[in-house]
Specification:
The chain is an alpha+beta fold. It has three domains: 339 residues, no CATH class; 111 residues, Immunoglobulin-like (Sandwich), CATH 2.60.40; 106 residues, Sandwich (Immunoglobulin-like), CATH 2.60.40.1930. The chain is built from 13 helices and 19 strands. It has a five-stranded antiparallel beta sheet with strand order 11-12-13-17-16, with helices on one face. A hairpin with a 5-residue loop joins strand 18 and strand 19. The longest helix is centred in the first third of the chain and has 31 residues. The two termini are 56 Å apart.
Length: 588
């Protein structure tokens, strides 16, 4: 009896090692670490190329890196490429004898976790003439996102992938573990096949949608052959193809489950083993294409994510199995197993799964978020808090269901688990009426049915929020981004950038004043200071310099301690009108 678990574990380990070694993992998220020329630099000699260095390997196409001249026209050759032997660095060539002025560099690449990353910065040649307008253009390009329709479609696809995966892997495994041969009605097989088709279709659509999603193109370009071909040559595309191959192999598992009544114990053990190994492989294809395989210590993150998704699939699969058993039992095949026994078995597996989900989710959150500040001040962190709240509701519902199960069906300790219920009563036709085992006819099982349906609805909500999370920048990375905000006063718009908003003399502050028409506007006076009321620090005056019309900046600003600092900006637009604008700047 010990050989089967050992063989199963050996298969798990071998498959995991092969997939991880094949796909590789990344050491960090795709952040721009450096550039040549450097951002905001003023060069005496015009460069012959622009080179960007990222924190992890990135995927590019011909238009991933663009350079715009002082007149706003594109001047690069359009041939973005990796530097020889370095998948983390990209470059594009520039023409010789560039005119004096300020240039804009805009980039858009695909990171190792399959998500697009983009940004923009400026550099100058000879002088920073036109820096204000160029900086405004760079800010607009950096803030430009892709099509909203594509974003919604991508979210729906990710939701379908998660839903199909958890039901397919979890339900097939739970049937194999707790439902004896001959006990699976047609409805269980129907649910399995629906989840299989959902995962197949969602994976195919993901290949098509990844192209327009990564390139920031409209939905009409989704069937462009060049984009699809490009996706197939990325890690995301390769993993999607592997997933389709695994799903083709999973057909044998589904057939084996359907025909389990006619299979002997030895053949059924092989069906169970293949089911578990292919299920783990399917989970790996999702984990390797997401945030889990990036960041600090990606191998540890990948292990946590695989355990998290595997436990979630057991939990979801158990709920799906209970729905099949409790909601309108299949009279066409008969109920050859006691629903009470199945419910108790599912409850035990679900309890273990909840422990793993909570433990791995907590560790993964610490890894992806890293601080209370990131939890509260980033989109990823706030979305994760919503997910945690929904999971708490799900756990509470699960606890109520478990309590109802153990109060409703008492198991007597004998040679095997059975239901403490009255003996079957004979109807007038002589048929056996399983009054104790047909749980659909008592009030307690009715409450349990409603609880199961409610849990499945909450699971869907968890998956919907999870699909949002995988499209968000992880909180640890987002918290490291510069602070920026915009306020309107005295008929002008004031844009503020504090980079990187950390303690020490490392901060750069840029303030842009725009007219109501959105053009740079020079004003008679603009002053700024920093105050931390909680520590009674300040006001610390900021020595602003003029970088051009409407552009005020300071470098090497020293912020001594972390906290919520108040950046006070005094704006005077003429001899009479003056306004003091306080802005809260969280400093890490």
């Amino acid at each position: 009896m010990m050989r089967r678990p050992k063989r199963l574990l050996a298969g798990f380990g071998l498959l995991a090692v092969l997939l991880v070694a094949w796909a590789g993992t990344a050491s960090a998220h795709a952040q721009l670490e450096s550039s040549d020329p450097a951002a905001q630099s003023v060069l005496l000699v015009a460069p012959t190329q622009v080179v960007l260095h990222f924190g992890e390997p990135v995927t590019v196409d011909a238009g991933s890196l663009r350079v715009l001249g002082p007149d706003g026209q594109r001047i690069d050759s359009g041939g973005t490429h990796h530097l020889a032997g370095d998948s983390r660095a990209i470059a594009t060539a520039l023409p010789p004898r560039l005119p004096r002025g300020t240039y804009v560099v805009a980039w858009r690449v695909i990171s190792a976790d399959s998500h697009p990353v983009h940004g923009a910065f400026v550099y100058s040649v000879g002088s920073d003439r036109g820096a204000a307008n160029a900086s405004l253009l760079a800010t607009a390009l950096a803030d430009r996102s892709g099509s909203a329709t594509v974003g919604v479609l991508y979210w729906l696809i990710r939701l379908s992938v998660f839903g199909g995966l958890l039901v397919l892997v979890g339900l097939s495994l739970m049937i194999a573990l707790v439902w004896r041969p001959g006990g699976s009605p047609r409805r269980a097989g129907g649910v399995l096949w629906v989840s299989w088709w959902v995962l197949v279709v969602a994976t195919v659509l993901a290949i098509a949608a990844q192209g327009v999603y990564g390139a920031g193109l409209p939905i009409g370009d989704i069937i462009r052959p060049s984009l699809i071909t490009g996706v197939l040559h990325t890690r995301f595309g390769e993993l999607a193809v592997v997933r389709l191959g695994l799903l083709a192999g999973f057909v044998a598992v589904l057939r084996g489950i359907e025909d389990r009544a006619s299979r002997g114990p030895l053949r059924w053990r092989w069906v169970l083993a293949v089911n578990a190994v292919l299920g783990l492989a399917l989970v790996l294809t999702v984990s390797l294409a997401g945030h889990a395989s990036t960041g600090a210590d990606p191998t540890w993150g990948l292990v946590l994510d695989v355990l998290h998704l595997s436990a979630a699939s057991v939990w979801t699969g158990g709920l799906a199995l209970l729905a099949v058993v409790l909601i309108r039992p299949d009279a066409s095949r008969g109920q050859t197993d006691d629903p009470g026994r199945i419910t108790h078995a599912v409850s035990a597996y679900a309890l273990a799964a909840v422990v793993v989900v909570v433990a791995t989710g907590t560790l993964q959150s610490m890894r992806q978020v890293g601080s209370v500040y990131a939890f509260v001040n980033t989109t990823y962190g706030r979305t994760l808090l919503v997910k945690i709240a929904i999971v708490v509701v799900l756990i509470a519902l699960g606890a109520l269901s478990r309590r109802l199960v153990h109060r409703g069906w008492g198991l007597r300790r004998s040679g095997r688990a059975a239901i403490s219920s009255p003996a079957p009563a004979r109807s007038s036709s002589g048929a056996s009426a399983q009054s104790g085992t047909n749980v659909g006819h008592d009030g307690r099982s009715g409450r349990l049915r409603r609880m199961v349906v409610a849990e499945l609805a909450v699971v869907l909500a968890v998956l919907a929020v999870t699909a949002l999370l995988v499209n968000s920048v992880p909180a640890r990375q987002a918290a490291a981004l510069p602070f920026s905000t915009s306020v309107t006063t005295l008929g002008v718009q004031v844009n503020v950038l504090v980079d990187p908003a950390r303690t020490g003399p490392v901060n750069r502050i840029h303030i842009y004043v725009l007219s109501s028409a959105g053009t740079p506007k020079a004003i008679p006076e603009l002053d700024a200071s920093l105050t931390l009321a909680a520590e009674q620090l300040g006001p610390l005056q900021i020595p602003l310099r003029v970088g051009g019309p409407g552009h005020y900046y300071a470098t090497r600003v020293d912020i001594p301690v972390a906290g919520s600092w108040t950046l006070t900006i005094t704006v005077r637009t003429d001899a009479i009108n003056e306004e003091v604008v306080p802005i809260i700047v969280p400093v890490r």
